[in-house]
Amino acid sequence: IQVCPNDAIRETILGYGLMETLFSYVKPNDSVASVAWTSAQYEEIQLQALSSLEALVPHSLDEYMLNHGNTRLLLLLEWSYNGPAFAGHGNSFYSEGGHGNKIAQLRYTIRVLLAVVRCKDEAVTEDLCDQGLIESLLLVLKQHKGMEVMIELGILSNILLILSIICENDVHRKEIFGEEGIRLLLEFLSSTQSRLMSHLGYQKLLLSTVNAIWCCVSQLHHSYFLEYGGIPILLDLLDRCSPSMQNLVLGAILDLSEDPRSVAHIKTWRGAGQKTVASLLIQLWVSEEEVLGVRRGENNVISDVINPISSHDQLITSSTPNALSSAPSMAILDVSDNMRCKIFSLFNRIGMSDIPNLTPKEKVTLIIIENYLDFKVGEVWQEIMAEIAIDKIVPIQSDKDGLDKIRIILEAKAEAVKQRQLEILEAENQEELEAERRSYDQIRSNFLQWELQDAARTEYLNKTSDYESLQLSKKKKVPTATLR
């Protein structure tokens, strides 16, 4: 295994027939009549042979195909999930988790298949698919979907990675994956969310599942995905998962939102506390900017109109001439390095106007998101101007005037956005003051009513307890009776 990457050593050992020898053990081991070992010994050497093939095959695909590697692996795969009963011995590292079952054989067969498809040789992959690889893997997923042991979760994760690789750019394979595959993916998503923090195995399975959704669900099967509630499940996951997973989950949702039918599912989603998707995306934006070190004032108002969305790393690079001239554009790299571009794109799909139930702080942040593309274009222009200055290029007068106008327009744009943010906060402040005034008016009115009621009660008590007060009250009523 260790010497496989060395071309000279690899060619030497292949010349002595190592590949053929290793493949001689890639067969169902429910019978050991042809070998001189016990069943336990044969199992151990078989698993070691599979482990060696995992390292050797990616460097020797031609030799692998000459030994009919695809056929042999698929036959062993079929035996491991559908063959006669076999009780593994589980005596060593390679057979961990395989005592009394065929899990060890299944585990290493899947690992070799993953190593093969990762080479992305279309001829080899096509041969595997023609022999029923996708259907076999779906059967394995169906049989083992309720497993909770770490090793078995690793098998499921590797199967989903294989499916992602072979289906990503082939519509026909996505069709074979089909409705049954989509249903299995959603079952994995639903069942693993509640166990997300249990251990690393569930997190790996969840990431593999989301990646499979991204790669295996074709446009033709979006209706199945929507019908089975795929969008709400992904949004629930986005709301609950760790920050390290959110970028991948958000990317999958954005990709699925290209189907216009999915927009309604996104808009109607409600999370904990009736949280809307707009509030969730704004929350993710604020968290992302905190991680990036973007300068923000109180209530998330823009504090730097020259660099309104620049991260801390971008500001450091812009202040280092050598780094700016030699490194790739930080403004462009920033688009792929974080979630802000995805959040902006998803908001463009669902709309940014007339969003109900947003707090003032969320409205302030939404204005920044709405102008993200303009600010990003501004960052690119700032980098161009900085590089021109570093290279000591003197633009002609018309170019200089154009660059000056661009700088003025960019600063004016940021200043206008900042003013809109302040207007929203001021309007909210005035509304709170007005609500406070109405509350005080209501309190004052209540006290007045209490005073009038108290005066009427006192007058009644005086009339019923003092004869002179009663006579005085009668005299007050006499002129009224006379006028009538």
Secondary structure elements and pairings:
Elements: H1 7-15, H2 18-23, H3 39-56, H4 61-66, H5 69-82, H6 103-117, H7 122-130, H8 133-144, H9 150-167, H10 171-193, H11 200-216, H12 222-227, H13 230-240, H14 243-256, H15 261-267, H16 277-292, H17 312-318, H18 321-326, H19 330-337, H20 340-350, H21 360-370, H22 372-390, H23 397-465, H24 467-483
Radius of gyration: 35 Å
Mean pLDDT: 84
Number of helix segments?
A: 24
- Count all strands and give the number: 0
What sequence of helices (H) and strands (E) makes up the elements? HHHHHHHHHHHHHHHHHHHHHHHH
Overall structural class, as computed from helix and strand content, comes to mainly alpha
Main beta-sheet annotation: none
Low-confidence sequence ranges: 480-484
Indicate the proportion of strand residues.
under 5%
- The coarse silhouette is flat
Task: Specify the helix fraction band.
Answer: over 70%
N-to-C span? 117 Å
Describe this structure in words.
The protein is 72% helix and 0% strand. The chain contains 24 helices and no strands. The longest helix is centred in the last third of the chain and has 69 residues, at 397-465. The model is unreliable at 480-484 (pLDDT under 50).
Key descriptive features of the protein:
single chain, 484 residues, mainly alpha, 72% helix, 0% strand, flat
Short summary of the structure?
This protein is 72% helix and 0% strand. It has 484 residues and is mainly α.
